[in-house]
Design goal:
By secondary structure, the protein is of the alpha/beta class. The chain contains 7 helices and 9 strands.
Length: 222
Amino acid sequence: MRLLDLFCGAGGCSVGYARAGFDVVGVDIEPHPDYPFPFVQDDAMAILGRTPFLSTFDVIHASPPCPRYSVAGSIGSYDPSTKPDLVGPVREALQAWGGTYVMENVPGAPMPDAVTLCGWAMGLTHIKRHRLFESNVFLMAPGCACPKGDTVSVFGHSGEDRRKATIAQHGAMRKHVPFAEVRSLMGVDWMTSRDDVSDAIPPAYTQFVGEQMLHALLPAAH
């Protein structure tokens, strides 16, 4: 089955869906040379208006930009109100398309019917990285499994204030974790850009979601 990954970045979500069994095509407005599958450089919002193209896919995944809802805005790196509010428009476009979809974003995004995935619950030691997943197919989630211990946080971009652009922090000591270790912990070893890793979703999340999607869709396909 074919899956279109909109706002795909360097392919964290795409790799998870491929591991679940989908043939994946990615779309992003920025070039991502590390992206490991067929890639279309275009505006995802424009793609959402091209129904004949969308109809060639069984599932659409969309990860609209998250700065509007991210906690980073609350600690002073930018004003969230200046960032685009795309979750609602993307949801409306996916519903108008009428097929099976998944939408992903950060906690705080307006997704009241979403499930939350946690890195620790997905078997990723030291990774918290809570993310919301909303779909018009029923999804289950194991809940949060974060312990009271060291976690690695990956946030900020290289062009921002260094205080807000830490590659990773480890526990209360706020120790920098080597970039290679962060990539390994998240399961995104193919990514070479620090900014791409900062934006990435661990593939374990979408492999878990994708397996549920296939379970729901394949009986209908037969």
